[in-house]
């Protein structure tokens, strides 16, 4: 059963979506519980009088709260706040009206300094507890200069039956406008919260989304039904750059007669859109990696610049979503690589070749490998446009491309840089990295847990010499981490 929890704080009604078990099964309220610290996965931690651990969402250390238990296990419980008895002195009022229902920006009530401290501790805990690693002193986390409007890419999903908040139910008004265009509600694949204003991406992001929703409603364009895979307006992506270029990708579930009129209306309303694409996606999932992106108006790509380098960003390109923090991340990576100009560098999971090109000026040769062919094409275009002639790029599955034969053909690396997806690296890739015996490794990760697992394997031949966390996503529990490793003498 799905329910909602309403918490009154500072005369503001905060609504939280909650998951309940069978009726009566989890009808447990814990009263006057003091929140002790920030825990994993964006939750906070408390203890009951008998010492049992309780994980609580949307809580701040120092809060005294009443908690409804939503999950009960032998060693721990999970719960949601039903009443803030006494707010923590550190508690901030959330700045977003969608806080607590939308799945993102869970740490809005936490001061940014506390967020950074929690992420720093998370890196240490995961590297030591999961990887059992011996670490040097971890450098202080690099905070984000922007804590709002810092993302350069967002995806919004359309639904023919949007999520109805408890506040709307309590008002008793007739709900005539059911469609929504926004984010998935946390933990529910088929529930979409209609978004009025999002603080993650700068304008015209909000204005474009609201215009598209209003246009579709006025022109009776059916919104997508996620369960039935039916409807027309499905989802949309907005990409922006630091110098205000805008790429819009509108995804439809099927062809329809009003498509061109709709795209023309969007283009006329927002002349600042640099690149306007559409996709016809009739398959069950929303991923666009295997879909044709059709350019309707404008340029094929938008461009981001960094230290004089210009990077092409197409509709399927990967580019770090916080551009300002990406620059800090890449500088750390380059510093950790310790390049003198004579090294052969392997950049694994290179994406559009941003790191490869960023370090190329201090390397003899750089080889970039990436799974997505379109990203590799972008990398080649970027390298040519930037006048870089010491980078080569290869597309394919990492475990299939990075082999002993590849190394024999292209030269043994002096430095290996790897920036894998959240799942980390395949064991076969770790084996080849160990066999390559590069003098230095630089492991960039968006998931310190999988990084810790991989480092435990790599540390059979390497020792960790430096650790630098970087905050790419303020108000969330996510943290990027960079580790430098040196080959142990004799290995």
In a few lines, what is going on in this structure?
The chain is α+β, with helices and mostly antiparallel strands. It has 11 helices and 24 strands.
Topology:
Blueprint: E1 2-9, E2 12-19, E3 29-34, E4 37-38, E5 44-47, E6 53-57, E7 64-72, E8 76-86, H1 112-129, E9 153-159, H2 166-171, E10 180-184, E11 192-194, H3 205-218, E12 233-240, E13 246-252, H4 259-269, E14 275-280, E15 294-298, E16 302-306, E17 309-313, H5 323-337, E18 344-348, H6 354-360, E19 365-370, H7 373-385, E20 391-395, H8 398-401, H9 404-410, E21 415-418, H10 427-436, E22 440-445, H11 448-458, E23 462-470, E24 480-487
Parallel strand pairs: 6-8, 13-14, 18-19, 18-21, 19-20, 21-22
Antiparallel strand pairs: 1-2, 3-7, 4-5, 5-6, 7-8, 9-10, 9-12, 10-11, 12-13, 14-15, 16-17, 22-24, 23-24
Helix pairs in contact: 1-11
């Amino acid at each position: 059963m799905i329910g909602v929890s309403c918490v009154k704080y500072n005369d503001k009604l905060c609504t939280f979506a909650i998951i309940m078990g069978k009726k009566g099964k989890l009808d447990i309220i814990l009263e006057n519980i003091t929140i002790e610290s920030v825990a994993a996965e964006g939750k906070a931690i408390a203890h009951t009088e008998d010492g049992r651990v309780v994980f609580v969402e949307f809580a701040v250390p120092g809060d005294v709260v009443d908690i409804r238990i939503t999950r009960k296990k032998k060693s721990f419980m999970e719960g949601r706040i039903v009443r803030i008895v006494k707010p923590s002195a550190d508690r901030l009022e959330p700045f977003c009206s969608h806080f607590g229902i939308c799945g993102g920006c869970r740490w809005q009530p936490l001061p940014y300094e506390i967020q950074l401290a929690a992420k720093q501790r998370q890196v240490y805990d995961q590297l030591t507890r999961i990887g059992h690693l011996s670490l040097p002193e971890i450098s202080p986390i690099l905070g984000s200069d922007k804590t709002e409007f810092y993302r350069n890419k967002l995806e919004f999903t359309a639904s023919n039956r949007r999520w109805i908040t408890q506040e709307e139910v309590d008002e008793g008004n007739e709900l005539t406008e059911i469609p929504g265009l926004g984010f998935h509600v946390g933990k529910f694949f088929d529930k979409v919260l209609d978004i009025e204003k999002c603080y993650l991406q700068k304008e015209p992001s909000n204005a474009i989304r609201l215009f598209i929703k209003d246009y579709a409603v006025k022109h009776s364009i059916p919104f997508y039904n996620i369960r039935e895979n039916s409807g027309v307006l499905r989802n949309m992506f907005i990409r922006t750059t630091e110098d205000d270029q805008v790429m819009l990708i509108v995804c439809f579930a099927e062809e329809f007669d009003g498509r061109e009129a709709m795209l023309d209306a969007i283009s006329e309303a927002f002349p600042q859109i640099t690149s306007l694409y559409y996709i016809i996606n009739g398959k069950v999932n929303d991923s666009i990696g295997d879909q044709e992106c059709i350019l309707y108006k404008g340029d094929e790509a938008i461009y981001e610049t960094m230290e004089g380098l210009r990077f092409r960003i197409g509709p399927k390109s990967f580019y770090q979503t916080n551009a300002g923090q990406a620059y800090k991340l890449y500088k750390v990576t380059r510093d950790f690589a310790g390049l003198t100009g004579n090294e052969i560098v392997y950049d694994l999971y290179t994406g559009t070749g941003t790191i490869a090109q960023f370090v190329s000026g201090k390397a003899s040769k750089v080889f970039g490998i990436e799974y997505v062919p379109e990203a590799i094409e972008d990398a080649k275009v970027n390298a040519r446009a930037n006048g870089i002639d010491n980078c080569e790029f290869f597309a394919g599955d990492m475990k299939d491309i990075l082999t002993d034969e590849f190394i024999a053909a292209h030269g043994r690396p002096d430095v290996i840089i790897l920036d894998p997806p959240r799942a980390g690296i395949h064991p076969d890739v770790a084996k080849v990295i160990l066999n390559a015996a590069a003098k230095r490794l630089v492991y960039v990760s968006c998931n310190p847990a999988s990084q810790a697992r991989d480092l435990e394997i790599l540390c059979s031949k390497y020792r960790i010499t430096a650790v630098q966390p970087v905050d790419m996503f303020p108000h969330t529990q996510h943290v990027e981490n960079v580790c430098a490793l040196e080959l142990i003498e004799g290995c």
